[in-house]
Amino acid sequence: MTNVIEADDLRRIYSGGFAAVDGISFAVPRGEIFALLGTNGAGKTSTVELLEGLTAPSGGTVHVLGHDPYRERAAVRPRIGVMLQEGGFPSDLTVAETVRMWAGCTTGARPLLEALEMVGLAARGSVRIKQLSGGERRRLDLALALLGRPEVLFLDEPTTGLDAEGRRDTWELVRALRDGGTTVVLTTHYLEEAESLADRLAIMHQGRIVLSGTPAEVTAARPARIRFTLPEGVEPGRLPLTLKAGADGRRVEIRTHELQNALGELLDWAREADVRLEGLDARSASLEEAFLEIASRTDDSRATGPRATGSHADASRTDASRTDSLETAR
C-alpha cells in the first residue's frame, strides 16, 4: 500500500529551545483515516502544521504525496484540503459568496451546489455568515476544505459545535471520502469520534508519539474492567484468589486481560455462594482509559523545561493558515 504521508524523526523547536515535536516517525497509507490525539500542548497542532507545509521542520523529514510540503509547496497545496478549528469568514458575505470566493483560489474547484450539498447547506446559500449557527459554520468550513477534491484532507476538530445529527452526518461523509480514496488526518478531542472513525491513531504526549495502532490494538493493551457491589456481610476476601480485585468498602473492581474467563469465574462463584452482585458492569478497555493514563503521565526530565502554551501554537497556526487559504493553489 502506498504511503501518502511519511514523517521520519520529525522535529519542531520553538524559540527558547522548546521541542513541540520531538523526533516522531509515522506513515499514513492512501485511503486511511489517521487520528492524531493528545492533550493541549502535546504537539498535535505543530505536527499538523508541518504536514500541511505551513512551517519548515527543525529536524527530520516529512513528505506528503511524495513531496516536501514546505519546500515543494506548489506541488502539494493544490492536492490537499484543510479544515481549521475556526474559519474566520467575512460576516456580511453569504454562504454562496464565500464558497465562490474560495473557489476562485482553488484549482479545479467543485461546483458550488455540489460542495454545499455534500455538507447539507444547499438550502442556505443566500444566508449571510453572521446568521449561521455554530454548527452550520463548521459545515461551511468542511465544504471549503472539500472544494478542490483533495487527495489528502486535514480535519482539525471537525465536529465541534455540531449537534448529534450533524456529527453523525459528518462521520458518514468522512467515511465516504475515505472509501473513495481520500486520505484523512483527523485531530479531535472527542475520543468516541476517533474510536469510531479512525483506521489507525497515534496518541502524543510531550511532543512524542507514545502509543499508536488501530483503535482495537490500542485498547487491547489495556485491561478490561468488572465492577459490582457485594451485599452486606460478604467480604471481598471471599472472592476467588485468581481474580485480582480491589475494593473500596463493598464496591469491588476487577481488572483483567481475560474478560470472558474472569467474568465466567466470578458468576460461577456468585451462583455457588448464593451472592447477588449488585450493579454488575463488565466492559472492555476504552480508548478514553488509554488516553487518560497517558495524559496523566509526568516526565521529570521534561517537566523542568519550558512548556509551550496552547495559545502560542494555535495563534501561529491560525495566522499562517488564513494567509495560506487565500493563496492561489496553482
Commentary on this structure:
With 330 residues, the protein is α/β, with parallel strands linked by helices. The chain has 2 domains: 3-219 and 302-325, Rossmann fold (3-Layer(aba) Sandwich); 223-284, 2-Layer Sandwich (Alpha-Beta Plaits). Helix content is 35%, strand content 25%. The chain has 12 helices and 13 strands. It has helices at residues 44-52, 73-76, 95-103, 112-118, 134-145, 164-179, 191-197, 215-220, 259-273, 287-295, 300-303, 310-325, and strands spanning 3-13, 19-29, 33-37, 59-64, 80-83, 152-156, 183-187, 200-205, 208-213, 224-229, 245-248, 251-256, 278-283. Strands 5-6-7-3-8-9 form a 6-stranded mixed beta sheet, with helices on both faces. The longest helix is centred in the middle third of the chain and has 16 residues, at 164-179. The chain is elongated and about 75 Å long. 35% of the residues are buried.
Distinctive features:
six-stranded mixed β-sheet; alpha/beta; disordered C terminus; 12 helices; 330 residues; Rossmann fold
Oligomer: single chain
Q: Note the run of SSEs as H and E.
A: EEEHEHEHHHEHEHEEHEEEHEHHH
* Whole-number mean pLDDT: 88
Number of domains in the coordinates?
A: 2
Instruction: Classify the secondary structure makeup into a structural class.
Output: alpha/beta
Helix content: 25-40%
Quick structural summary:
The protein has helices spanning 44-52, 73-76, 95-103, 112-118, 134-145, 164-179, 191-197, 215-220, 259-273, 287-295, 300-303, 310-325; strands at 3-13, 19-29, 33-37, 59-64, 80-83, 152-156, 183-187, 200-205, 208-213, 224-229, 245-248, 251-256, 278-283.
